[in-house]
Amino acid sequence: MNLALVHSRARTGVRAPPVRVEVYLAGGLPSMSIVGLPAAAVREAKDRVRAAIQCAQFEFPARRITINLAPADLPKEGGRFDLAIALGILAASGQIPLQSLNDHEFVGELGLTGELRAVDGVLPAALATAEAGRRLIVPAGNGAEAALASRVEARTARTLLEVCAHLTGRKSLPFAEVVPGVRSGQPDLADVRGQAHARRALEIAAAGGHHMLLVGPPGCGKTLLASRLPGLLPEASEAEALEAAAIASISGRGLDPARWRERPFRAPHHTSSAVALIGGGAQPRPGEVSLAHHGVLFLDELPEWERRALEVLREPLESGVVTVSRAARSAEFPARFQLVAAMNPCPCGWAGDACGRCRCSSESIARYRGRISGPLLDRIDLHVEVARLPPSELRPDAPQGEDTATVRTRVLAARERQVARCGKPNARLGQAETTATCLLSASDHALLERAVDSLQLSARSMHRIMRVARTIADLAGEVSIGTPHLTEAIGLRRAARGLEVQGT
């Protein structure tokens, strides 16, 4: 038969849409053409495939070869279709059996010697192949990544010749194997001296999944506190870990299969562009907000970021999704991260400190704080003041605070209460869910209304205070929100507001 059909997978965002590689051999002068919206790297597959087939001691047919990558309107990029194209040519020319291709999918780039080389985005392809009910064959370099999709039968090969031997029944390919997990040492919260108020806020943020802003002078421990947050969070579920690993797989930066269950912690530099933060490019790639999916995004020196870069955070903070649109295509990336931001109270960093070192004018402080828009600050639940510690609390023999394991036990208990009640952390409650689960007494409602009026807060901030109060009650093991819980939640919203008033 002169026609063969091979199954493969493209890469579009975090999806892996199916691609049918159709190979037709016709009479006429020997030639080879690829149609179906191929990019330059796909068109160059003609030379790689020809050399690989000949080096594997197969006959390259001296026919007019037409290769169609369907669907025709889906852009095809990279060398991931090389293996499928080579197998299609061999099957159409009768050198391997056609029926052996029906229940397999193939992803991999070919070298001129027939060697199979690793490609990116294999994990999304493996997950999609499992849903389609087929088997997957990938290069040996992608084996550990493909094995993370436990529901798919994935095998690995080093060369084109090994794949052909497997399809003809002469030799079986080895199954893809999961790399044993390795846990990197998480920094311990016990390293943070003093800062009882900030430590308490960090515990509340971890328990409810709340975004947090740390405001304080240089060297007071803001970065130290932020780096301890991932260790307090519950372990990622398999579904969450697979989502985060799939994003890392397509990012072009590589995926470490040994650490795929760890929650990501991303800390981009404040000179990063909006595209680096949110994602984009001619071929859309995920940005830092997506690479922090189900983890923590730490933005230090918040006022030093470009205003445009910060404003793109508004949508993912609310929806947990980023849509990158270009003229030719658009891609959607998940971005359900927990934001921790840090900033100084003024340009010199010492406004409000007892040392009296600040010489910044009220106008310069207002300009400095004006670099962060009100709508962005409105979406951050906890505004925490971090004070400079006295030298006596930094001595080696000074008392240490609670360690990560102790605090994490309380965080896990609070998360379990939230999941049992609504199936998600308090920070992700909708307006109707907030109204139903964050019930206040009449006196507490009046207290909250007075706080909203005096602090000039928005309706969004009001609901966020209620969610934080619900988290504080969960940490205390209380069924209902009490006045102490609400008062503490209001105080955590008022800290940065007080600094603003002091600086003006």
Descriptive notes:
- It is built from 20 helices and 18 strands.
- It starts with a strand and ends with a helix.
- It is elongated.
- α7 crosses α19 and α19 crosses α20 (483-503).
- The chain is α/β, with parallel strands linked by helices and 504 residues long.
- A hairpin with an 8-residue loop joins β1 (3-9) and β2.
- The protein has helices spanning 40-43, 45-55, 82-92, 122-132, 143-146, 160-167, 196-208, 222-232, 238-250, 274-278, 288-291, 307-311, 314-319, 362-370, 374-378, 404-422, 431-437, 442-455, 459-475, 483-503; strands at 3-9, 18-26, 31-35, 64-70, 104-106, 109-110, 116-117, 135-139, 154-157, 212-215, 265-266, 279-280, 285-286, 296-299, 321-325, 330-334, 338-343, 382-385.
Radius of gyration: 28 Å
Number of helices: 20
Shape: elongated
**Going across the major beta sheet, what is the strand order?**
11-14-17-10-18
Mean pLDDT: 91
Residue share in helices?
25-40%
Oligomer: single chain
Please identify the structural class as seen in this structure. Answer: alpha/beta
Major sheet summary line:
5 strands, parallel
What is the count of β-strands? Answer: 18
Provide the β-strand percentage band.
15-25%
Give a quick summary of the entry:
The chain has 504 residues and is of the alpha/beta class. The protein is 39% helix and 15% strand. Strand 6 (109-110) and strand 7 (116-117) form a beta hairpin.
Write the layout of secondary structure elements.
Blueprint: E1 3-9, E2 18-26, E3 31-35, H1 40-43, H2 45-55, E4 64-70, H3 82-92, E5 104-106, E6 109-110, E7 116-117, H4 122-132, E8 135-139, H5 143-146, E9 154-157, H6 160-167, H7 196-208, E10 212-215, H8 222-232, H9 238-250, E11 265-266, H10 274-278, E12 279-280, E13 285-286, H11 288-291, E14 296-299, H12 307-311, H13 314-319, E15 321-325, E16 330-334, E17 338-343, H14 362-370, H15 374-378, E18 382-385, H16 404-422, H17 431-437, H18 442-455, H19 459-475, H20 483-503
Parallel strand pairs: 3-4, 5-8, 8-9, 10-17, 10-18, 11-14, 14-17
Antiparallel strand pairs: 1-2, 2-4, 6-7, 12-13, 15-16
Helix pairs in contact: 2-3, 7-8, 7-16, 7-19, 17-19, 18-20, 19-20
